[in-house]
Amino acid sequence: MSGGPARPETLDAAMITAWIRHTAELVAADAERLTRLDAAIGDGDHGLNLDRGFTAAVAALPGEPDPPGRTLITAGRALVSKTGGASGPLYGTALRRAGKAFGDATEVDAALLGRALRAAVDGVQELGQAAEGDKTMVDALAPAAAAYETALAAGGDLPSCVRAAAEAAGKGAEATVPMTARKGRASYLGARSAGHLDPGAASTVLILRALADVVGEAAG
Amino acid sequence: MRKLINDPADVVTDALRGLAAAHPSLRVDPENRTIVRTDTAGSGKVALVSGGGSGHEPLHGGFVGYGMLDAAAPGEVFTSPVPDQILAATTAVHGGAGVLHVVKNYTGDVLNFRMAAELAEDEDIEVATVVVNDDVAVEDSTFTAGRRGTGATLFVEKIAGARAEEGADLAAVAEVAREVNERSRSFGVALSPCTVPAAGRPTFELGENEMELGIGIHGEPGRERATIRPAAEIVDVALTAIDADMPLAGEELLVLVNGMGGTPLIEQYIAFAAVSDWLAGHGATIGRSLVGPYVTSLEMAGCMVSVCRLTPELARLWDAPVETPALRWGR
């Protein structure tokens, strides 16, 4: 590669920490919208809960960055113990599984991040028993992992794989609008849940956008 | 927002302080957010722990005491408690005979209680779980999260609590809890929405002459919107739905007409009269009854009808003494 700023080939501890902090900023900025989305088909507290959870995750981050895996496990544990609702255990499990996939690595390359994303999807599906098409966060998260893997297999570098994942999450979330919910509280509405964006899918988009932003900034 | 609060962020904490001040028989831990019975330490009986979002008072803290729950873990308003909180409640009341978790079937409650049970088992505390899912308004199939847990939670907590008080082991307490759940059904109607303090706006909007049929207890919309009808017709919708799912003819029933928080008792009794007429006309009898706001949704107006098909043993356990802030008899 010649010219232009260097594109990051790996995520280090500082970038993982920046990802959690930036996710907390995006969630705080969007909390009202998430809560409004949830009020349409749930009980209207998703933004409030997630804001509380990610605020706790940021507070739990160590002063001196731990290895990436340890940092994600710490953040995930904080989400589980502070968020409540279904999003706490689900996002907490996603981060903890991704952190475990990182192992002791101090630098996370594109292939390892792909395995961690997949581990996160598996963890969420196992706990929540939801599949694609159920109108849940899985409808954003699973396409994101798949798009990441496709981009990686096509020879993409870390920033382009992350961007592909974030874009796929956004499209996946939009695709939840016409769906009828089959999991979570929205499922109690049956057909009345159709026509609304799923709030869990919407918040998943924020988490992946935060990662794309952090990687993008590192790329200059 | 017209609410008697200090700060939307402090609603649960301030309410817990009030509960503790009003009921010296309870120990409230504001840090872990647990409400614990003080008189059973070291008794060696099976302990009952329940919990869920706040905003359903007196459920669950108001049912902590002799003959019912040993501890409750109240989450934020309409939000399940977190695993640490449930674990703290479980550890506080474990007397060596195991702990029964009474969980309402909402995804968040189920996931957080499951994680807490795993953590408790890591500490060698035996935990059994009963998931309450009595709400017939939800289509029960593999295509939903299953039926919600609503009014029958009170039946399960009272009857299983009585069984635990008698010294039954964990398996027997869990068995009677599941039996009560299986024999119970509920259907709810909202005449107005409610406002979660932290959100500051109603969870849904209803026109002047509209009501929501088939609601749960979290201010979420129901299955269907309809024009407001007389109480007898509303009760007919509820009991017809219940009867279609679990035939009531020939049964002796425990009946709860439950206010959702914003409906006065006079209207709840009007609903109970309609329930009594309906059941008499359909060949069922009322063996035991309860009328009042027991499983509420903040200030939502409306009511929920819950029934449990009694057996002589379940009736005996229902009649057993209970002494909690919200339910008290025979002692």
From TrEMBL, chain A:
Q: Which Pfam families match?
A: Dak2
> What's the protein called, per UniProt?
Dihydroxyacetone kinase-like protein
Q: Which organism is it from?
A: Actinomadura viridis
Keyword check for Transmembrane: no
Q: Which Gene3D superfamilies match?
A: 1.25.40.340
> Per its UniProt entry, what is the enzyme's top EC class, as one word?
transferase
Give the record's GO biological process terms. glycerol catabolic process
The EC number(s) given in the record are: 2.7.1.-
Alphabetically sorted, this entry's keywords are: Kinase, Transferase
Q: Which residues form the DhaL domain?
A: 14-213
Q: GO CC terms for this protein? A: cytosol
Keyword Transferase, does the record have it? yes
Q: Name one GO molecular function term.
A: glycerone kinase activity
UniProtKB/TrEMBL annotation, chain B:
NCBIfam families per UniProt: dhaK1
Q: Where is the DhaK domain?
A: 7-329
Give the protein name, as stated in the record: Dihydroxyacetone kinase-like protein
Query: Do the record's keywords include Transferase?
Result: yes
Q: Which InterPro entries match?
A: DhaK_1, DhaK_dom, Dihydroxyacetone_Kinase
Q: Does the keyword Transferase apply?
A: yes
Please name the source species.
Actinomadura viridis
User: EC number(s) per UniProt?
Assistant: 2.7.1.-
Q: Which keywords belong to this entry?
A: Kinase, Transferase
What the entry lists under Pfam families is as follows: Dak1 (PF02733)
Superkingdom of origin organism: Bacteria
Q: Which cellular component appears as one GO term in the record?
A: cytosol
GO MF annotation, one: glycerone kinase activity
Q: Which GO terms describe its biological process?
A: glycerol catabolic process
